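Continuing from the previous page...

OK, I double-checked the sequence for Riboflavin biosynthesis protein RibD against my notes and this is the correct one:
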Amino acid sequence: MEHEDYMRKALALAECGMGHVSPNPMVGAVIVRDGEIIASGYHKRYGDLHAERSAFAECDAKGIDCTGADMYVTLEPCCHHGKQPPCTEAVIEHGIRRVFVGSSDPNPLVAGKGTAILRDHGIEVTEGVLKDECDRLNEIFFKFITTGLPFVTLKYAMTLDGKIACYTGKSQWITGETARDHVHRERLHHAAIMVGVGTVLADDPMLTCRIENGRDPLRIICDTHLRTPLDSNIVRTSDKVPTLIVCGDADSVRIGEYEKCGCKVLSMPDKNGSTDLAALMAYLGKEKIDSVLIEGGGTLGWSALESGIVDKVMAYVAPKIFGGSTAKTPVGGQGVAVPDDAFMLENRRITELDGDILIEGRVKKCSRD
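Thanks. Re-ran it with the corrected sequence; updated structure tokens here:
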């Protein structure tokens, strides 16, 4: 096997921690000797063993001496004390000869110090193995650890003619089961899911993650005037699934009605009559919410793009045509005035999902004065 093949094994392991390690990164590690993987591990849950120590625990349990072996790890080993001791110490103590690293860790507590410590102890370190794939795995962590702000993904499903519903408002279902399963994986991946009150009123969604052994994200409803029905699915289940309703100035009695049901209500100044999304992201960052998946309609989609909070767009395109001049589109609002002002996507990827197509890319950040 080649170095990239071992790193792919580590990447596959790392993804097993999705939804359970936030706000930590997903990390996988494999230990190799004479072309054979002798142990492996990954970061299973926030506060648990890191990937390297998980792999060493397997060695210790099996009585395997890994002295002189190679280690492949998707992220630079940590070198500081947190909920777990430094992984660099474990690598040195277990006599690893060579370490192959996917991503450098942008955490200021690490940021090159981990690999430097290994080299200072005579361990050969090779960096950048499958770097793009390893970086993509932890794009959420990279933004959060360097800015303190959530990584924001704007997601929507639309037809070939750009509709998210028929002219009647009916929208179930635009994409097929494979694409919808993929969406639930993204809900698992993100710490929070956000919609506007219009989506709640139109669809009465649950906004949960329907993956076995998955974790439901925090549900955030942007509802300036507190129009979310008390008998909606979201409010009725807010004692079981964490729910945050963001409003403007509101009557304390009305707020209390939601809080009695289990919702948390955040009252904050609005911006032009709508939720101040930049201020909301700052609040969520302080609450250790590292990522937000926006699944709202066109109004929220435009507001998110216009406010500059969107990092990534995921557009699921179904091979269908709805038509209808009044049928809703994924991004509404005023829109841009000229083509040159369009929001552009870079680092694009296209994935086929059993007939549907997923187009995703990072929003190119630029001044929009």
